[in-house]
Amino acid sequence: MGILSVSRFACLTFSWMNSVIANGYKKPLDLEDIPHLASVDNANEVFPVLKSKVESLSNGDNQITSLGLTKAILYIVWKDVVITGLLALVYALSSFVGPYLIDSFVQYLNGHRDYENQGFVLVAAFFISKIIGCFAQRHWWFKLQQAGIRARSAIVAMIYQKGLTISGQSKQGNSSGEIINFMAVDAERIGEFGWYMHDFWLVFVQVAVGLALLYKNLGLAAVASSISTVVVLLANLPLGNIQEKLQDELMKSKDARMKSTSEILRNMRILKLQGWEMKFLSKIIKLRDEEEGALKKYMYTLSLNAFLFWGAPTVVAGITFTTCLLAGIPLESGKVLSTLATFKILEEPIYNLPDSISVFFQTKVSLDRIATFLRIKDIDSNAVDKVPQGSSNIAVEIINGCFSWDLNASSNPTLKDINISVNQGMLVAVCGTVGSGKSSLLSCILGEVSKISGSVKVEGSKAYVAQSPWIQSGKIEDNILFGREMDRQRYEKVLEACSLKKDLEVLSFGDQTVIGERGLNLSGGQKQRIQIARALYQDADIYLFDDPFSAVDAHTGSHLFKECILRFLDSKTVIYITHQVEFLPAADLILVLRDGRITQAGKYNDILCSRSDFMDLVGAHKEALSAIDSLRINVQEQTNSSKNTNKTQNDETNGILDSKAQLVQEEEREKGKVGFSVYWKYITTAYGGALVPFILLAQVLFQTLEIGSNYWMAWASSGLPGDPALVSGSTLIIVYAALAFGCALCILARGLLLATAAYKAATLLFHKMHLAIFRSPMSFFDSTPSGRILNRASTDQSAVDMQIPYQVASFVFSVIQLLGIVVVMSQAAWQVIIILVPVAGICIWLQQYYLPSAREMGRVVGVCKGPVIQNFAETISGSTTIRSFDQQARFQNTNLKLNNDLSRPQFHVAAAREWLGVRMDMLSCFTFASFLVFLVSIPEGTIDPSIAGVAATYGLTLSNLQGWIIWTLTGLENKIISVERILQYSSIPSEPPLVIESNRPNDQWPSQGEVDICHLQVRYAPHMPLVLRDLTCTFKGGKKSGIVGRTGCGKSTLIQTLFRLVEPAAGQILIDGINISTIGLHDLRSRLSIIPQDPTMFEGTIRSNMDPLEEYTDDKIWEALDKCQLGDEVRSKEGKLDSPVNENGENWSVGQRQLVCLGRVLLKKTKVLVLDEATASVDTATDGMIQQTLGKHFTDSTVIMIAHRITSVLDSDMVLVIEQGLVDEYDSPTKLLEDNSSSFAKLVAEYSMRSNSNY
Fold first, then answer.
1. CB atoms within 10 A of CB 162
2. Dihedral sign, CA of 930, 932, 937, 940?
3. Model-level pTM?
4. Which residue, 298, 517, 771, 1201, is the most exposed by fewest CB within 10 angstroms?
5. pLDDT at 753
6. What positions does the domain ABC transporter occupy (predicted)?
7. Is the pLDDT at 84 greater than 90, yes or no?
8. What is the rounded distance in angstroms from the CA atom of residue 951 to the CA atom of residue 106?
9. Which of 237, 206, 117, 173 lies closest to 375, judged by CA?
10. For helices 613-630 and 1239-1252, angle between their N-to-C axes, nearest 10 degrees
11. What is the CA angle 1142-1178-553, rounded to 5?
12. Is it the case that residue 941 has pLDDT exceeding 80?
């Protein structure tokens, strides 16, 4: 039952939540059990309203100011704001009825009766005002939370939409980590601002009413209280400013840390292979230290704040009473108690003011950040003129185009003087050396690059295949359909063309297999082919391919080219970038790029005739081919056998997933109660809990002294007008001042101790969790989407830093206060115990009944947050692909749906809380009323009126306090889950030790570099099949060995086992006679080198990228850069070795990144070198250069190479052919080529055939 179809009464008491809470008590709730939102809260309804409002408020070029954004947000929630404003006013006024009546009540107890049954009339007035106040407060809070959730989901949708439209250039200013923070932290904060919204004007109302009441009681002394109140309020402003500064500092350092963390998690495989993970961990710890500096200051400022504000009411009361004495205004106990009760009510808004002020500033910072983000330049939608299909026969036309990624550096554009015209149905190839601007050319056809001058015309729809595959997490089928309807026939044809059939047969769920984040359980080739399938299925008019053949082996590459481009797309316009010269002859037009200009354009043979850059590329390729010929193969004779190999075209399998368990499991959420052990672990984290007893002691003392001071004032002042005073005025004030001073000291001690313990606990938890994550095995990162880890490092860590300590403390302090009140009340009338016991029982029962559903809904909120963030992160990284397919609207809808899934549990969590609140309030009102009835009905004189008065004064705050305890307890239950989640990641089983002291290899190891593999069996996880099934072979020391085989046969797995990213299930690997499983991981990994498949660079400088461990001198680094031919490139930059590298190395081309990886290896110079398909993203000329460099500098090292280009293994000493995890052949290439029936001979024949044919 939703909130729509309910009666007035159900609405008033929140009874419409009964069914949800009852259901939650029976079983753990899931998202399906939570009712849907009303349309007014639905993101699909709210987002368009906010969007159009923002557009109407932005001036000119979509420049929205923070003020404009605020107006737009208010526009979607203004009704709620007005209603809650009225409710807040009602609540504020009703809360003063109690103090107003206390004076008459004490006089009544002292025997002063005005009329008959006056006592019961007073009790009724107390009771009714309390009840009205309770309902007003509950609905005020609930409505504001509802508005906050609505605002948040609309803002998140705005940010998401912006993420889809910002240009690549603007993205460089905001890393994906920061953009995710806008969504995870800033939008959330704006949503939570609702709580504090009315506090600002409410304070003035409350203070005004309070002072009027004081004036009635104390006459002119009220002036003194008002002056001292204003002084206290003003004292707060400088503290608020300091807090805002610290808050800002904290957010900045947090952004930096999250940016670094997300980059490291993305590249964990490389860090593990190189043995760098501890160095990068220390980098994060260093960033965290800066953050902790700000955190420490922030916490101590907070404790000073608390000191000022808890001390304030006592100070103000002291000043007021002193003024009364000096002015000769008589102090009667009724008036004194009424005054104290008034101060008690004023306490709350004045306490909360600092919070409200700091939240106001936090929200302002967040609004500014989001508005700044919304102002970023979008992609220029007019850069490309899009014309519908069929208006002419030109598909793509660029006239005098000049383009630049960076508009500020327009003096040096990325592409200049581009003139091309491509007719419908043409096949265009783009080639050129590394960094010549090939990918940028495709980007300007897509409209991704800023256009400086010229015109671009594109006719019809486009499909695009990026260089590095972008795969969404989800089913394979969804990745290929990409939002289109399923057309079985076409779908099967596409799978056939991309040779995905075989791969899907191997996967246990076929095309229903769920792919991990960024395609983690697929091999590089499979990701690339799924990406091609996605483009083919789209039936576009123009196809743009950014070198998709480099990630697959030669065999599959030529199959893809033939099937996809020449057959499937024969009638379409296709523009493809390629490094493989053998794909060029088929093109109708070849564009050769150099330094951002088209140096040549024409057909293959025309260009060949004019000596040029093109010749260099082809020349390098020809040399490689002649290597094959020199091995004297008679190619012609082989033609027949190669025809037969077409049948085996699809024998690509990937054994990783051959079982019935999906790799990425659902995120675990602990079910049931948060164990007490979690609280215990948290409390004892800092100094083994040594500070806890002192904090408690300070609070108990504070409570005792506070009650003592009030009791002293009530007892020592005279009962009725005209009674003689019991003590002299000066004594009265001095004792009161002493007690008040004691209170203030306790508060200060409590605040400082709490801050110290909280800071220590946050630090320790952070270090523990990060150490565990960095030391966990690679399999953990493969099966855990990075969003989950990031969520713990940002959201959960934030909660531990800023919220949990104060929530724990707040709960404990309130319980101590409550006990204090109970003691005072039972002092006055012990009969109250008869009521207190059952009421307490009912309260505890209600609490227990409500908690299971609240807790599970809280956890559902946590679990639903992940997908929103992850979907967003994926969208940002694939925004180019999404735009090129014109799928923005579909992605926006997915985001809205995920957003609603998050709002639903949040909305119902809020409702459930108020459901409990209303019921608790009723109980405490009932308790207080019965207590007053006791006092009124006991015969006069049996009880000391001043004690009764003090008890009644304290009783006034009973319902507030009780509500507050429940509120903090449930808030705590929800927040402590963060500690639970951090602890959960602090106990991940770790990899084997980095160094085994008792078994360290000597410094010279490996001196020979001989790698011995005996009966190796490897699987990725216990429930998965073997990938390597019994592999035995020996790589001789100092020799060069090539490994070939179809995609997914286990080549990469063998390398991962050599580096122990995967531990063997059976068998062993020996290097120079030492079993690698017996030594420490760092000892092993630091003595091997690898050039990995995906070239990776980290944010930082060239120096930190070449030598992260800072082991080498600058001269050494320059030497390595020169060897890998990057020296001149780096010298030409301003910063030389300190030239900046962006996130993921985005400001360097893929080829240049590959060269940096080569440079790292040259710097490290080890005895064993592994190349993992390292030359896939480089043109043939650069490839030849890499091979030469390696040949020159690694003559006496063992080189193990996984190859896609058959030519690169021809000059190796030995070739290992792996077939489905077993050794198929292992011999020297010449030997293998002599036997025409060998698998290797067939592969080579195929390669040279396709290279000589013109298709």
1. 19
2. positive
3. 0.71
4. 771
5. 92
6. 396-620, 1013-1245
7. yes
8. 11
9. 173
10. 150
11. 120
12. no
DSSP collapsed to 3 states, 648-714: HHHCCCCHHHCCCCCCCCCCCCCCCCCCHHHHHHHHCCHHHHCCHHHHHHHHHHHHHHHHHHHHHHH
Residue 854, C-beta contacts closer than 8 angstroms, at least 6 positions apart = 24, 909, 912, 913, 916, 970, 973, 974
547 contacts: CB under 8 Å, gap ≥ 6: 438, 467, 576, 577, 578, 579, 1177
Cα separations in angstroms, 62 against 162, 378, 549: 11, 9, 40
Rounded Cα distance between 14 and 534, Å, is 49
d(CA 564, CA 84): 62
Q: What is the mean pLDDT of residues 1089-1100?
A: 81
* pLDDT confidence of residue 667: 59
| Amino acid type, 190 | I
Give every CB contact of residue 295 below 8 A, 6+ residues apart in sequence: 250, 759, 762, 801, 802
Nearest to 101 by CA among 213, 208, 202, 207: 213
DSSP state of 579: S
Number of Cα atoms under 13 Å in the Cβ half of residue 592: 22
Q: Tokens in use for 601?
A: 């354009």
- Min mean pLDDT across 89-103, 732-746, 970-984 is at 970-984
DSSP string, 195-261: GGTTHHHHHHHHHHHHHHHHHHHHTTHHHHHHHHHHHHHHHHHHHHHHHHHHHHHHHHHHHHHHHHH
- Is the distance from CB of 1239 to CB of 1046 less than 8 angstroms? no
Residues comprising the chain, all counted: 1255
Tokens coding 375: 């102002």
Residue 641 pLDDT exceeds 50? no
What DSSP element (H or E) covers 359?
Answer: helix 333-375
Query: Is the distance from CB of 335 to CB of 105 less than 8 angstroms?
Result: no
- What are the strands, taking DSSP E only, across 511-556? 514-515, 542-546
Using DSSP, state whether 193 is helix, strand or coil.
helix
Asked if 90 and 137 touch (Cβ cutoff 8 Å), the reply is: no
Across 954-958, average pLDDT = 82
What is the rounded CA–CA span in Å between residue 15 and residue 25? 15
| Amino acid occupying residue 1018 | V
Burial class of residue 451 in the structure, from the number of CB atoms within 10 Å of its CB (0-12 exposed, 13-18 middle, 19+ buried): buried
Residue 33: pLDDT band with limits 50, 70, 90: confident
Q: Which helix (H) or strand (E) covers residue 593, if one does?
A: strand 589-594
Q: Could you tell me if 44 and 900 are in contact, meaning their C-beta atoms sit under 8 angstroms apart?
A: yes
Band the pLDDT of 634: cuts 50, 70, 90.
Answer: very low
The single-letter code of the amino acid at 955 is G
DSSP, residue by residue, 100-128: HHHHHHHHHHTT--SSTTHHHHHHHHHHH
Q: Which residues contact 1070 (CB under 8 A, 6 or more apart)?
A: 1011, 1012, 1014, 1076
Q: Which of 629, 650, 644, 652 is nearest to 1207 (CA)?
A: 629
Q: What is the pLDDT of residues 227-258, one digit of tens each?
A: 887 787 777 778 778 887 888 888 888 888 98
Q: Strand 1214-1219 vs strand 1222-1227: parallel, antiparallel, or unpaired?
A: antiparallel
Residue bearing the bigger pLDDT, 619 or 1058: 1058
**If DSSP codes are grouped into helix, strand and coil, which group holds residue 1093?**
coil
How many helical (H) and strand (E) elements, i.e. helices and strands, does the chain have? 45, 24
- CB atoms near residue 239 (< 10 Å): 18
Which pair of structure tokens corresponds to residue 1218? Answer: 């792996």
Maximum distance among all alpha carbons in the chain?
Answer: 128
pLDDT band at 86 (very low <50, low <70, confident <90, very high): very high
Q: Are 744 and 980 in contact (CB under 8 A)?
A: no
**C-beta neighbour count of 654 within 10 angstroms:** 22
